[in-house]
Automatic annotation (TrEMBL), chain A:
Source organism of this protein record: Nocardioides pini
Swiss-Prot/TrEMBL keywords: Membrane, Transmembrane, Transmembrane helix, Transport
ABC transmembrane type-1 domain location: 91-303
Protein name in the entry: Sugar ABC transporter permease
Family: Belongs to the binding-protein-dependent transport system permease family.
Subcellular location: Cell membrane; Membrane
CDD domains linked to this entry: TM_PBP2
Keyword Electron transport included in the entry's annotation: no
Chain residue ranges for the region called Disordered: 1-24
Matches recorded under Pfam families: BPD_transp_1
Stretches that traverse the bilayer: 31-56, 95-117, 124-145, 189-209, 230-256, 276-304
InterPro entries named among the record's database cross-references: MetI-like, MetI-like_sf, Sugar_ABC_transporter
Membrane topology of the entry: Multi-pass membrane protein
Entry keyword Transport: yes
Automatic annotation (TrEMBL), chain B:
Topology with respect to the bilayer: Multi-pass membrane protein
Subcellular location field: Cell membrane
Keywords recorded for this protein, A-Z: Cell membrane, Membrane, Transmembrane, Transmembrane helix, Transport
Protein name, UniProt field: Carbohydrate ABC transporter permease
PROSITE patterns hit by this protein: ABC_TM1
InterPro entries the record matches: BP-dep_ABC_trans_perm, MetI-like, MetI-like_sf
Chief location: membrane
Transmembrane segments: 29-51, 96-121, 133-155, 167-187, 208-233, 266-287
Domain ABC transmembrane type-1: 96-287
Span list, region Disordered: 1-23
UniProtKB/TrEMBL annotation, chain C:
Protein name: Extracellular solute-binding protein
Lineage: Bacteria, Bacillati, Actinomycetota, Actinomycetes, Propionibacteriales
Gene3D superfamilies reported for this sequence: Periplasmic binding protein-like II
Region (Disordered): 36-56
InterPro entries: Bact_solute-bd_prot1 (IPR050490), SBP (IPR006059)
Keywords noted in UniProt: Signal, Transport
Transferase as UniProt keyword: no
Length: 313, 302, 475
């Protein structure tokens, strides 16, 4: 958050030779300012300013609906949140969800990519088909899975029934409800990992395999020592992206379980929503949100570090 | 170079095919094909079921056990998406129209603001450029449900709650980081020497950008804009919290509103989901060459 | 409303520039901005905005009167009815009933109230929302208007109180000194729906008999479950279910005098009710019914999957639609199998009060507030109430409730008329949204085995008490 647009231009790029009879440095500096500042202004107004406002509110007992002026409560809101067992319970739920979903889609996504990369024909069609879930709106995905997972009329239980298996209460039992969220998220986002893993797999030069083949290396050896090291960095990026996205999850919970049964599938995002819009405890909800943003920023930092390492390596 | 689907696959059909195929034998290949088929069926089944439900009579929708075949076909659900029960335009079709306006306008805004900034970031050496770019990307990672609280307070001071303009602005703000990151990659691919040559011919830097680089960027801009369009089109959280009236509501909250009445018309839900998804799938197909960059906000390109 | 917002837009660039400047300034600068927003509200809640005793002069220019409600058939019925009938008297007026998803209903209204700018003129509040709206000065005080224009003797006093009075009325009564902030729009309560072909023509009379009948029916008819009722953790679904059983077994939700919940809701009767709900009723429901609300219960009944079901009357109309039902190909055939009855009694004779009243947004422009008052006066006339009944609405005036227009309009209308004297509401306090969420999630958890029922009830008592004691603060 320390960025300013005050001195965006230090010097012109070294590459272009200066055009004759002009002062390109000044022109470039002004041009960069003119080109960058509108976008920055929008981000400052719509992202930074609200965030600073939330930061200020997080130290107050302000409520958006009550006609009382805001009083400073210091770090009160933060201690309320960090010492609340309810919040830690949601954090645990979120952790289980993020870990489960991301692990499952990484394994599946990589597996599918690997299988596709070994096919000679129909790869384009296959890949395109696999990508469909990722393009759908979470609303559509949530609604439809709610219909399919319905214990009575849902097609999933109907199929289990014809296999001679009993009905499963997908959305109304503690364990299965969280599992259902993980399954649905995995269904939607496995293609994401697959797409990126596929990009990595193509980058493995064929001559490496040939060399290994001459050495009569085992298939596992080839996978472990040639394929994986080359795909790994890309896969890590994909995992980071998914982890951050999953951490923010709101819409799927809202539609699929609305946090139930009880509060057992309430993620942090969903809990913030309740604090903010049921009790209208705006100050408290702001502190909650700021803490979540901090977590996301830390994750994004880690992610970018990997990205840089990748670029350098 | 952005990865395309067709490139994203090694060419085993040629003579540098993976050795496994030569040695592993048919058995293994059959297993692999079966596995892939099973996975494809599992991934596509919900989509097919959605299509099927959208053309079923309501009483077949609730049939137990589920009817996979042999149901009566009807297109009534699709009619209901667009035409109100008593005739006239349905509320849902109004929401689709709102979605078109909001997603379209926010995409235009994000593109107009983002493309020049991306060019500047690509061409000039700026102070703390990496930090600036990281900052820009990080705004994209804030949980929407958190951002919506201060945005809500700000909008109510500005009178932007429940307006299309409010949605357009917030979507643009969410798409600008993406546009900058994605476009920077495209600009990087256009050699700076082209502009230098133009400037030697007497163009100013601005003219060089406008006349030389920009035309070369058009395909990239189109791809970037399509992704921004998809993000705005599918967005739910801001739409549901910042709008409430029929005149402003976009399609995602409208579709979510189809359940929670006294009866749920799953056929209608399915039909509207299909209608809602088709433009996205068509657009995604158009930009399939840039999918990897698109879904990673331009961070992964190679 | 569009006009108001346009006016807002005009000052936008200046505002935005100011905001952008502020963004770069330190946090202290924000204090002024945020604080100014919080402090500079409407008139004090204690003496909130008041409607005049007489209706001001109405405009003859075209005018759209906007309602906000949630998505369900009565909303469409109201829009059609008002546009057909009210325009006979006021041809320049168009009625628009905007709807939001049920789960969003409270948020949609109160976020706009919080913005002190509404795109609706007549919010249709749930009876328990009144406290929050009044405390924040969001709706007009109609006391003087009602005194002057409404024949209060034509109503059951509790109906008038439940949809308008604040502070909340004692169950069954109206406090004539308290202010009124709304008028009844749509009455509602639960009806018991039972399968005449499976359990006989006579409905069970006590709660215990009802459970026995459901058990017997379930045993005799494989594939059909004994009971279907609301269990979801959204809206007020699971909470109303518990509250109903609590009432039937003689419990109380709270003591409104000293605002105590702890020790009241979880007293012996309360525990008994929770026990009956979780250990006797829940086992008779369909597997996976733990997230059912209105539409799922309707679907179960229409698909012939439930012996006995409980449903809001206003939401039961769809059950008679042969297109949605497997119980018959005509409405008469369906009515041969489905019976509608008032709720059984046990230790006490209590049914849940549902339905909603009309209120007037304090932020609507004066000419539309005047039109809204005129609409209310028009709506509460005897003949209009009867027409509303015939159009599928549930009126509140006693004469309309007893009229053949109402009683013959639907098979469940007699149930409503018989239930009026037995109704009980929940807490009508500003903290309602939090209280209902606590109860919903805990009852839902108990019903789905995520929490021990006794523990769930004690948690409800403790957490709700905390919310009341801290006036809604805390998590």
């Amino acid at each position: 958050m320390t960025t300013t647009t005050d001195h965006p231009v230090q010097e012109a790029s070294a590459a272009p030779p200066p055009a004759p009879g002009r002062s390109p440095r000044l022109t470039d500096r002004r041009l960069a300012l003119v080109f960058i500042s509108p976008a920055m202004l929008l981000l400052l107004t719509m992202s930074v300013f609200p965030l600073l406002w939330a930061l200020y509110l997080s130290f107050t007992d302000y409520s958006a609906t009550r006609d009382a002026p805001a009083d400073f409560v210091g770090l009160g809101n933060y201690t309320t949140i960090l010492t609340s067992p309810e919040v830690w319970q949601r954090a645990l739920t979120t952790l289980v969800y993020v870990t489960g979903a991301v692990a499952l889609q990484t394994v599946l996504g990589f597996g599918i990519a690997y299988l596709i990369s070994r096919r000679a024909r129909g790869r384009g069609v296959l890949t395109t088909l696999f990508l469909v879930p990722m393009m759908l709106s979470p609303v559509v995905v949530g609604l439809f899975w709610k219909f399919m997972l319905d214990a009575q009329f849902g097609v999933i239980n109907s199929m289990l029934g014809s296999l001679g298996l009993g009905q499963v209460e997908w959305l109304t039992r503690q364990r299965t409800a969280l599992l259902s969220l993980i399954v649905v998220d995995t269904w939607q986002w496995t293609p994401f990992i697959m797409l990126i893993a596929l990009a990595g797999l193509t980058a493995v030069p064929a001559y490496l395999y040939e060399a290994a083949s001459i050495d009569r290396a085992s298939e596992w050896f080839r996978f472990r020592h040639i394929t994986l090291p080359l795909v790994w960095p890309l896969l890590l990026i994909a995992v980071m992206f998914r982890a951050i996205e999953a951490f923010r999850l709101f819409d799927l919970v809202y539609i699929l379980t609305s946090g139930g049964p009880g509060v057992s599938t309430e993620t942090l995002s969903f809990h913030v929503y309740k604090v903010a819009f049921l009790g209208f405890n705006t100050g408290l909800a702001s502190a909650y949100g700021i803490l979540m943003v901090l977590v996301v920023i830390v994750l994004a930092q880690i992610y970018l570090r990997y990205l840089n390492k990748l670029k350098e390596g | 170079m952005a990865i395309t689907i067709d490139e994203a696959v090694p060419g085993p059909a040629t003579d540098d095919a993976p050795p496994a195929r030569r040695r592993g034998g048919r058995g293994r290949m059959v297993v692999e094909v079966l596995l892939l088929t099973a996975l494809a069926v599992a991934m596509l089944f919900p989509v097919l079921w959605m299509l099927e439900t959208s053309i079923k009579e309501n009483r077949d929708v609730y049939a137990v056990p589920a009817k996979f075949f042999g149901f009566d076909l009807t297109l009534d659900h699709y009619k209901d998406v667009f035409v109100a029960r008593g005739g006239g335009r349905s509320d849902l079709s109004g929401s689709f129209l709102n979605s078109v306006v909001v997603a379209g306008a926010s995409t235009v805004l994000a593109t107009v603001l983002g493309v020049p900034a991306a060019w500047a970031y690509s061409r000039f050496t700026l102070k703390a450029k990496k930090d600036q770019l990281f900052f820009i990307l990080s705004t994209r990672f804030m949980p929407p449900v958190v951002v919506v609280i201060p945005i809500f307070l700000m909008y109510r001071t500005l009178g932007l709650i429940d307006t299309k303009l409010g949605l357009v602005l917030i979507y643009a703000a969410f798409n600008v980081p993406f546009t900058i990151w994605m476009m920077k990659g495209f600009v990087d691919e256009v050699p700076a020497e082209y502009e230098d040559a133009a400037m030697l011919d007497g163009y100013t830097r601005l003219q060089a950008f406008w006349r030389v680089t920009l035309p070369l960027l058009v395909p990239g801009i189109a791809a970037t804009a399509v992704f921004a369009l998809i993000f705005s089109w599918n967005e739910f959280v801001f739409a549901v919290f910042l709008t409430s009236s029929q005149e402003v509501r976009t399609a995602p909250p409208a579709i979510a509103g189809l359940i929670g009445g006294t009866t749920v018309d799953w056929g209608l839900v399915a039909a509207s989901a299909v209608v809602f998804a088709v433009p996205v799938l068509v657009f995604a197909y158009l930009v399939r060459k840039h999918l990897v960059a698109g879904v990673t906000l331009g961070a992964v390109r190679r | 409303m569009r006009y108001l917002q346009r006016a807002g837009h005009r000052s936008l660039p200046g505002r935005r520039a100011r905001l952008a400047t502020a963004a770069i300034l330190a946090v202290t600068a924000l204090a002024a901005c945020g604080g100014g927003d919080g402090g500079g509200g409407e008139a004090e809640a204690a003496d909130g905005p008041k409607a005049p005793a007489t209706i001001p002069e109405l405009t003859d220019d075209p005018l759209t009167l906007s309602f906000i409600w949630f998505e369900w058939p009565p909303a469409q019925a109201l829009e059609d009815f008002a546009n057909a009938e009210y325009t006979k008297e006021r041809p320049n007026v168009t009625i628009e009933v905007n709807t939001v998803p049920n789960a969003n209903w409270h948020d949609a209204m109160f976020t706009q109230f919080a913005a002190r700018q509404t795109d609706f003129d007549i919010p249709i509040l749930d009876s328990q929302h009144i406290g929050e709206a009044v405390t924040n000065g969001n709706i007009l005080d109609l006391t003087d208007f009602v005194d002057e224009n409404i024949d209060v003797d034509a109503y059951d006093p509790y109906l008038l109180a439940a949809y308008g009075q604040y502070p909340q009325a004692e169950t069954g009564q109206r406090d004539e000194d308290a202010s009124l902030y709304g008028l009844p729009l749509l009455g509602d309560t639960w009806t018991m729906i039972y399968r005449k072909d499976l359990i006989g023509d006579e409905p069970p009379e006590t709660w215990d008999e009802m459970i026995d009948a459901a058990q017997k029916c379930q045993d005799e008819n494989p594939g059909v479950s004994g009971l279907a009722f609301h269990q979801a953790n959204g809206s007020d679904a699971a909470a109303v279910t518990y509250n109903t059983v609590n009432g039937v077994y003689g419990g109380n939700l709270w003591n409104s005098e000293d605002k105590s919940i702890e020790g009241v809701i979880n007293d012996e009767a309360g525990q008994k009710a929770m026990d009956v709900l979780v250990n006797e009723m829940k086992p008779l429901t369909a597997k996976g019914s733990g997230n059912w609300f209105i539409d799922e219960v309707n679907a179960a009944v229409a698909q012939g999957k439930a012996c006995i079901a409980f449903q809001w009357i206003a939401a039961a109309g769809g059950l008679l639609d042969p297109a949605q039902s497997t119980l018959g190909t005509t409405e008469d055939e369906i009515l041969d199998t489905l019976g509608f009855a008032t709720l059984p009694t046990q230790d006490a004779d209590v049914v849940p009060l549902g339905g909603m009243g009309m209120h007037i947004s304090a932020y609507a422009p004066a000419e539309r507030q005047a039109e809204a008052l005129n609409f209310m006066k028009w709506f509460e006339q005897e003949d209009i109430q009867k027409k509303w009944a015939a159009a599928g609405g549930v009126p509140a005036r006693t004469d309309a409730l007893e009229s053949p227009e109402f009683l013959e309009a639907g098979p469940f209308n007699q149930v409503y008329a018989d239930s009026v004297s037995r109704m009980r509401d929940m807490w009508n306090v500003p903290e309602y949204a939090q209280l209902i969420d606590i109860e919903n999630t805990n009852v839902n958890a108990a019903l789905n085995g995520a929490k021990d029922p006794e523990e769930a009830l004690d948690d409800i008592a403790e957490q709700q008490q905390q919310v009341l004691d801290s006036s809604g603060g805390g998590l």
